Amino acid sequence: MRKSILLLAIFLSSLSFVQAQKLDIIPKPVSVQQSAGQFVFPSPLKIVVDKKLKNSIDYITADFSKNTGINPIVSIGKKHGKNNISFLVDKKLDLPNEGYQLEINQNGIFVKGKTDKGVLNGFQTLLQICSAKEVKKGSVPFVKIEDYPRFDWRGMMLDCSRQFFDKQTVKNYIDWLAAHKMNVFHWHLTDDNGWRIEIKSLPDLTLKGAWRGPGEVLLPSYGSGDKRYGGFYTQEDIKEVVAYAADRGISVMPEIEIPGHSRAVTASYPEVGCAITQELKSVQGEVKNVWCVGREENYDLLDSIIREVSGLFPFEYIHIAGDEVNRANWEHCPKCQALMAKEGFTDSFQLQNYFFRRVQTIVDKYHKKTDGWNEILKGGEINPNTLISAWQGISYGIESAKKGYKTIMMPGQFTYYDMAQSETERGHRWAAITDTKRAYSFEPIPDTDLTPEEQKNVIGVQGALWSEYLDRPARIMEYQSYPRISALSEIGWSKKEDKNWDDFYGRLTNSHLKRLADMGIAFRDFPPTAI
Ligand code: TNX
Prior knowledge:
This protein is α/β, with parallel strands linked by helices. It has 2 domains: 17-147, Chitobiase, domain 2 (2-Layer Sandwich); 153-270 and 317-324 and 370-518, Glycosidases (TIM Barrel). It is built from 18 helices and 19 strands. The protein has helices at 2-20, 57-68, 116-130, 167-178, 204-207, 235-247, 263-268, 297-312, 328-331, 334-343, 348-365, 394-402, 412-415, 436-440, 452-455, 476-481, 484-493, 501-518, and strands at residues 31-40, 46-49, 73-76, 85-89, 100-105, 108-113, 139-147, 153-159, 184-188, 190-191, 194-195, 211-212, 229-230, 251-258, 317-321, 369-373, 387-390, 406-409, 458-465. The strands form 4 sheets. Strands 8-9-14-15-16-17-18-19 form an 8-stranded parallel beta barrel, surrounded by 5 helices. The protein has a 7-stranded mixed β-sheet with strand order 1-7-5-6-4-2-3, with helices on one face. Helix 4 links the parallel strand 8 and strand 9. The chain starts with a helix and ends in a 13-residue tail after the last helix. The relative contact order is 0.11. Bound molecules: ligand TNX.
């Protein structure tokens, strides 16, 4: 009798022990089974990494050390053997491509994925467990996790035109996305306010178009005042960032803004714009910021740009924008009008569609697919393999999915983190005041009349950080990004039925904000330190 009471007591205490160890993982995994016990890191600690992950070894080693304070002995191999931690790719695993299994037991830590990206996702979960508030340094609790994403595409866009973020800042940004199992970095490289990617065949794009201020071409300043301001990424920089991201399981999609938002282009090569005298303003108040669709030579320039860009980015998509084009430029332009008459068009959306169809032919030639903002659907048919970034609202994404296009849901009303987070904070206001709770409330596939087949066209979610307001203080970029991107990561990864704000908020405030701080992110706190 006494013995059974004792056993019961031990059993109960082990239960409460298990319950006490909150792992606070973000995004929430599909399944987590904890059991009593700890794996204590031995000294020296040995890690084996699958050859398929060999490019990621430095990253795994460095981030593990940073997180745990331990310098492990790392080797390449295929077996857990006598090692303490193994990171192995196993093609036969019955899991979606980016899924992983993570098991911590008396024999060590086993991270398995069907692909290298899967293993890297498991690695991020392990790092989070090591840094959960309730987990003691130097050990990790026994657990079995099986996990995979809800959506294939979990992206984030950073506007590096309105403000220029240097290469190191971009790499940091990529690190923080990787920590949240995001897998696409959408790099907004060109806009009215600066062209940021070196194009060797068109040197003035960066010699002139990457700079604003005294003595430079007149580009809108956005906070840089009367100082010379600017910068760009050389092709070597781009390759370095792309490789850095790939090691962390992230694909980089370049965005080249055409035909609107192109003041930096026309400031460098004025002949690209329409030959008109009218000063027609874009939504943002810029003039001369539209490519002339009737100028045949422009398609050769676009060929050069797309050829060079395609060679730098291995990702399958190039984003060619198409948003907010002031088509009135074409209505006043003799060449555009001549083209319109020749093609028998009756409105300027058809001209826009003509432009995109020609650009898509070029993109095809370089074996890429196009992504575009939802306006690209106007004016006629486009290539059926076009991906649509639906930014103007959920209904635009639904329309795109219904038409059969693969679609990324990124409605400004929920996923634009340039929006202010409260009435008193800095940021845009046009779409919504978006605090973390509102950001978290976004559901990419709401109860709509999308059929199951149409729902499959919604391949993912994305956030966007436009940078008009990111000029001061220096780290407002981080303040705007986190923890809203932490919320986005859960929308993109975790099961719809697991979504719960109170639960997320608990994990965030109990452990995750501390993790963000450890990564060096100047995030927005609760309650906020107003900016
Ligand atoms: C709309 S979203 C834009 C950007 C602005 C942003 C500000 C989109 C495709 N175009 O040019 O920066 O709003 O929120």
